[in-house]
């Protein structure tokens, strides 16, 4: 089949594009290569997959309505996996308009492209951040998520609402995936595994927020990719989805490891992989952050007979090995 994968130079999008290419599909990978973090890392990710003859890279901004519409009209994608977004909870406090342009306007161009070009299934990235101030644990897709605590989370919840509308009005099959703290080789440098590893290696203190009283449902990249690939083959329709009669071709799933880990345990895993102790700087809770994430993945497992299961120590050791190779550190 012919796929559009947005965010192809990003962490998750790059691995998903690689998997689809290996399976023999034609993949158009889109990214705007912005400088939210080092574009050299994004370019290095692209080099991982540029050798595939069935892969084509397109540099384009999602908010470019005219050229996005042209791309859809010319390429006639069968399926779209939309993983591009302006990411980061804390940065959304500093630069909110970047999130509106990419995550709201950009998502609208994706929906319009799918609507007008007979795309068979749109799978898109949501986030565990949508659960915001929710107290019930574990987080379930049946929970009401009306209390986001960051603009990033609000844009992701908006994406789900927009997708629901297009599924209902235009009969477009859509599936949203709420990712829970994805990590692994080639991961983002603004996330804890990279930040902590880099700081420990360079003898810098690490900031441990909420005095370490945080839990995250860390999910390894291989598990995320497996979930995305399996779920994009399960196209929601009126026959196989009786949950939401108002829009029976719309679904939302959590993808998380279903095992929250204390921040101190997470740091210990990095210390063990590096064989080096961290210098910890304990800090109060930051605006826009949440104390705990914990995914209920029963619906995902029922749908695709799979749930994430990679142990944190293994995943962190794989990340650290990549970090050393990428940075050519003699540790």
Radius of gyration: 19 Å
Tell me the number of strands. 13
Largest sheet: 7 strands, parallel
Q: What's the domain count?
A: 1
The first-level CATH class is given as Alpha Beta
CATH superfamily: NAD(P)-binding Rossmann-like Domain
Task: Report the mean per-residue pLDDT as an integer.
Answer: 93
Runs in which pLDDT lies below 50 for 5 or more consecutive residues are 241-245
Apparent shape: globular
Largest sheet strand order:
3-2-1-4-5-6-11
| CATH arch. level architecture | 3-Layer(aba) Sandwich
Question: What share of residues are in beta strands?
Answer: 15-25%
C-alpha termini separation: 44 Å
Roughly how much helix do the residues carry, as a percent range? Answer: 40-55%
What fold name stands as the CATH topology? Rossmann fold
Query: Which structural class should the secondary elements be placed in?
Result: alpha/beta
String of helices and strands: EHEHEHEHHEHEEHEEEHEEHEHH
Question: Number of helical runs?
Answer: 11
InterPro entries: Epimerase_deHydtase, NAD(P)-bd_dom_sf
Protein name: NAD-dependent epimerase
Keywords: NAD
């Amino acid at each position: 089949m012919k796929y559009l994968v947005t965010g192809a130079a990003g962490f998750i999008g790059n691995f998903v594009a690689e998997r689809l290419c290996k399976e023999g599909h034609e993949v158009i990978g889109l990214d705007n290569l912005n400088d939210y973090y080092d574009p050299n890392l994004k370019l290095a990710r692209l080099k991982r997959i540029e050798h595939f003859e069935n892969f084509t890279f397109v540099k384009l901004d999602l908010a470019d309505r005219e050229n996005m519409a042209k791309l859809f009209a010319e390429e006639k994608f069968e399926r779209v996996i939309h993983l591009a977004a302006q990411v980061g909870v804390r940065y959304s406090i500093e630069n909110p308009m970047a999130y509106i342009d990419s995550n709201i306007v950009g998502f609208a161009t994706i929906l319009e492209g799918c609507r007008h070009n007979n795309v068979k299934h749109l799978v898109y990235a949501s986030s565990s951040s949508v659960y915001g101030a929710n107290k019930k644990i574990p987080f379930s897709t049946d929970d009401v998520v009306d209390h986001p605590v960051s603009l990033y989370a609000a844009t992701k919840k908006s994406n789900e609402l927009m997708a629901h509308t297009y599924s209902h009005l235009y009969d477009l099959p859509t599936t949203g995936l709420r990712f829970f703290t994805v990590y692994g080789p080639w991961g983002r440098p603004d996330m804890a595994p990279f930040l902590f590893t880099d700081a420990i290696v360079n003898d810098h203190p690490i900031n441990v927020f909420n005095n370490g009283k945080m839990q995250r449902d860390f999910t390894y990249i291989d598990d995320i990719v497996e979930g995305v690939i399996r779920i994009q083959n399960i196209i929601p329709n009126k026959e196989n989805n009786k949950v939401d009669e108002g829009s029976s071709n719309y679904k939302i799933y959590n993808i998380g490891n279903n095992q929250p880990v204390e921040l101190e345990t997470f740091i210990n895993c990095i210390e063990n992989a590096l064989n080096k102790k961290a210098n910890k700087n304990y800090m109060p809770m930051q605006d826009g952050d949440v104390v705990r994430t914990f995914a209920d993945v029963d619906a995902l497992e029922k749908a695709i007979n799979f749930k994430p299961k990679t142990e944190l120590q293994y995943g962190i050791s794989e990340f650290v090995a990549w970090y050393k190779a990428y940075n050519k550190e003699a540790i």
